[in-house]
Design brief:
Blueprint lengths: L1 H9 L24 E3 L20 H13 L1 H21 L5 E12 L8 E2 L4 E5 L2 E15 L6 H68 L4 H35 L25 E3 L1 H4 L2 H22 L4 E12 L11 E10 L7 H68 L4 H35 L13
Parallel strand pairs: 1-6
Antiparallel strand pairs: 2-5, 3-4, 4-5, 5-7, 7-8
Helix pairs in contact: 2-4, 3-4, 4-5, 4-7, 4-9, 7-8, 8-9
InterPro entries: MdtP/NodT-like, OMP_efflux
Subcellular location: Cell outer membrane
Membrane topology: Lipid-anchor
Amino acid sequence: MFALLVAIGLSGCMVGPDYHKPPIELPMTFKEGTQWQRAAANPQGALDSQWWRAYQDPILNDLIARSAKANQSIIGAEAAYRLAQAQVASSRAGLWPTVGVGLSGARGAGGSGSSSSSSTTTGVSAGTGGTGVSNSVSATLSASWEPDLWGLVRRGIESSQANLQSSDALLAGVRLSIDASVATNYLGLRQLDMDIDLLQKQQTINQQLLEMIQAQTVQGTATNDQLLVAQDQLSTVITDLQTSQRSREQAEHALAVLVGVAPAQFNLPAVTAYNFVLPMPPPTLPSSLLQRRPDVVSAERLAAAANAKIGVAQAAFYPTLDLTAEGGYRGSALGGLFSLPNRVWTLGPALAETIFDGGAREAAKEQAQASYDQDVANYRGTVLSALQNVEDNLSAINHLHTQAQAFEQMFQRNQQLFGSQEAQQRAGTVSQQAVLTQQLVLLQAEQNWRDTQGLLSQGSVALFQSLGGGWQEHAEPKN
């Protein structure tokens, strides 16, 4: 009988609108020239890809692995995900009956009365001297169940599950954000390592040139204006060096926090040379990549949750059926309690309907509909922002790539010029001062090239992040 009632309850209709994903028109091409091809959306497809391995740096791999275990933002997001899981379990509990057991016993004295014994429905009382004493013992089993005739509980479960999926996407988004922050700070730190090395070399050369001009000023072969310019050039390099050293220290502090340790407990040795690997996207990218961005997935799931809440609000307009049952034993003593004469039971349904509530249910329905409309608008806005984000990053990469090529060509030309100056110095036709000046120009050209390489590498991290973790059709396996 109970199984039949469960089947009846679960087969009841569900009021409210069934969810359909809000339509979004994705462009066939990007304004910045990348072709997009249509593909089936797979929201989870890119969330687990280890895109940072494309930079081929074991230290970066280790830092990201450490941040995944110890970063407090990730730990907090994981706790929020567990909370959403518990909320789904709580919603599902509404489909099932509530069953309880009870065992009680009581002994009490009544007022003055006959000294004869009298029996009651709950026990036996006996009295002497005008005082009655009664005993009562009971053991009961009770159950109550409200069949989900209109889908109120099932819509609630639907909403909780969508919120859980949104929380899952938010967790993936936090992980992606932390991974990208680690990669960006690490690559920026390596860029600063090379800046510091090149600026220290420039400082040494500027100091040598200043000493030469000071001697020439004393000899009368250089003017005071030339001396002032040389002093300014040295001071400029010193201030640039201090700025780079400060930025390097702050990047190291940021990495310490990202991997979950105090800055005083973290140290990353400097390097004087670093090979920036520049992973570039393929000429065509599937439009499904945007559909698996964590923020897009989360926004779409919130819209689904809001849609289900409309059904919850509509179900409140319909009557509720409550089935209750209770059975057990009641007697005057524990001995012999579980006998047929002491058996009691009750069974009965209760049907309830709200006739007047001052418009509360209608207001709740309008609120649910407005929340859904708001979440749909937020979802579409999130997609548009994602498109802008990708466009901006592609634009930056395109221009930085062109700049890097130009600076590399300048560096190569200055290498040739410096080699020519050194040859002329050995031949005695060019002074050491001219060679040092050309060497200084060469170092500045190398710095411009290395800086642009670093920015291009960090720009590729931003593109990885804007595409939801990479441009792979299928997630790469984790080692």
